[in-house]
Specification:
Largest sheet: none
Distance between the termini: 25 Å
Number of domains: 4
Order of helices and strands: HHHHHHHHHHHHHHHHHHHHHHH
Structural class: mainly alpha
Helix content: over 70%
Number of helices: 23
Length: 537
């Protein structure tokens, strides 16, 4: 587990490394990536198990969706404050507390006997999970030199990008072969192993220890108002995004009330944090242009990654008739492509401007999603696999360079706060991506169905011929008049085509979201590849 002090890897560690003395930094990267995969996986693994959870706890499927929402709300509330909490309590201590809370609450979720009980435990699980990713990312930023950092973020990025794609497939397999409770129980041994390894290989760097002493020197000052406002704003926003389409958005008093509360919390909270001495959320960091653009790109990555990951399995199952397992098999090769490309991207980050790699990734992703607008109902399995691979190739070039660019101009003591904001941007982007995709599918299906149905009338020669031909075929088979049945079949064709067109609209919107970010990335500051900016190690 340890490396000799004279090894090349050890000698290139920054003086403020988060690796314990004598520990190879790549061991640290593996340990923290393990918890990352576990946490990100849990944001999507429960989706396909909702009907089983509802049945097992005597609830409706609509009621069971709060199992997902409660986790996301708790996650969103803790994320922005995780940087402050790491600084005040010590990053290693805070990180291990989050891992322990996540593992214990996972076990409690698995033994829950009612839906309210499960929702409470999911809130605890979301609180623990909310502190994991920011702490892990800042640990990596401090453990590796700027030139090595790209490879380290590549390993971390594999967990972040692959887990959402694997989650639904793994959740379905576990539920079908065992029980839904095991989607929570599997986190327990991973959490225990992560705690043991973290205790042995991770430490708080001297800079962070000094920053903590300075923060506590005049007594602990807690920004209760700032935390409360952001908790209110982000929590309510998450509910709006997760429940908006289900409640028909602003026609619902429930959604309208939560949207107003979200706007109030975020706007007033931002104004408060910009004027308080020790803010919980370090918004002044966004004054650095590269860091601000990196957060915007990370938001777009969340929209694209989670939006497409939700839409593609739905398309394959609803439109092509695939089983959940077959849809998972079509998506999985894309995950392997990301795993294969991440080390290459990590190497390139040390030799090429990060913003150029991000622009290439956005362009590739935009072209891949635009290519998906050519899908039809006769598409083959292999074509779906290759389309996902094309998209995954672009995503591989986004995560690592964006993280590297974000940390390039920040001093070491800011790594905790930077990680918190970056992960908040990605999570919010993911929630927006899922919400936009679901809303577009529902609304555009209605739009296209109305447009197509307007052409299927008694005055349409094509519709009349199709109806007459179908009626003759059905009459020949059944020996009786089948006009009504033929009309139903024709309407079914219209509905399927309308749904197909709505999926194409979603792919087009995601492609445009990728494309419009390219000129924005050009505004990032230039840094010599492999070197940090001011204040770096």
């Amino acid at each position: 587990m340890t490396a000799v002090a004279s090894s090349p890897v050890e000698s290139r560690q920054p003086a403020s490394s988060a690796a314990a003395p004598g520990v190879n930094p790549w061991i640290v990267a593996l340990v923290v990536s393990m918890a990352t995969f576990m946490e990100v996986l849990d944001t999507s693994i429960a989706n396909v198990s909702l009907p089983h959870i509802a049945g097992g706890l005597a609830a409706t499927v609509d009621e069971a969706t709060w199992v997902l929402t409660s986790y996301l709300v708790a996650n969103a509330v803790v994320l922005p404050a995780s940087g402050w909490l790491s600084t005040v309590f010590g990053r290693k201590r805070f990180y291990m507390t989050c891992v322990a809370l996540f593992a214990v609450s996972s076990f409690l979720c698995g033994i829950a006997t009612s839906l309210p009980m499960l929702i409470v435990f999911r809130v605890l699980q979301g609180m623990g999970g909310g502190g994991l990713a920011p702490s892990e990312q800042s640990i990596l930023a401090d453990t590796f030199t700027p030139r090595q950092r790209g490879m380290a973020f590549a390993l971390y990025g594999i967990a972040v990008v692959v887990a959402p794609a694997v989650g639904p497939t793994l959740g379905g397999w576990i539920t079908d072969n065992y029980t839904w409770r095991w989607i929570f129980f599997i986190n327990v041994p991973v959490g225990i192993l992560s705690l043991a390894l973290t205790h042995m290989v991770v430490r708080d760097p001297p800079e962070l220890q000094a920053a903590r002493k300075r923060r506590l020197a005049g007594g602990l000052k807690i920004d209760y108002i700032g935390f409360g406002l952001f908790a209110l704003g982000l929590g309510c926003l998450q509910v709006v995004l997760d429940k908006g389409q289900e409640e028909d958005w602003f026609s619902s008093a429930f959604i309208t009330l939560f949207a107003i509360a979200a706007a109030f919390g975020l706007i007033v909270g931002a104004l408060w944090e910009l004027n308080v001495e020790q803010p919980v959320v370090d918004l002044p960091m966004l004054k650095d242009r590269t860091f601000a653009i990196s957060n915007l790109v990370m938001f777009a990555i969340g929209v694209i990654l989670f939006g497409s990951t939700v839409v593609l399995p739905l398309f394959m199952q609803q439109m092509l008739g695939y089983t959940a397992q077959l849809a998972g098999l079509a998506i999985t090769p894309g995950g392997f492509v990301v795993m294969a490309l991440m080390p290459l991207v990590g190497y390139l980050v040390g030799h090429v401007q990060a913003k150029y790699l991000v622009m290439f990734g956005l362009l590739t992703t935009a072209l891949a999603l635009w290519h998906m607008t050519g899908l039809d109902l006769d598409v083959s399995f292999s074509t779906m696999v290759w389309m996902r691979i094309f998209q995954a190739a672009g995503l591989a070039f986004l995560f690592v360079p964006t993280n590297t660019a974000a940390f390039a101009n920040l001093p070491p003591e800011k790594s905790n706060n930077a990680s918190a904001l970056l992960n908040l941007s990605r999570n919010l982007g993911g929630s927006v991506g899922i919400s936009v995709a679901q809303t577009l599918l529902a609304r555009r299906t209605q739009f296209h169905q109305s447009r197509l149905a307007s052409h299927v009338t008694a005055f349409s020669p094509f519709a009349s011929r199709a109806l007459a031909g179908t009626t003759r075929v059905l009459t020949g088979r059944s020996g009786a008049g089948s006009t009504h049945q033929a009309q139903g079949m024709l309407m079914g064709i219209v509905e399927r085509q309308a749904s197909m067109l709505s999926y194409i609209d979603v792919f087009l919107v995601l492609a445009l979201a990728s494309a419009v970010m390219i000129p924005v990335v050009m505004l990032m500051k230039s840094n010599k590849p492999g070197q940090g900016g001011r204040g770096m190690h």
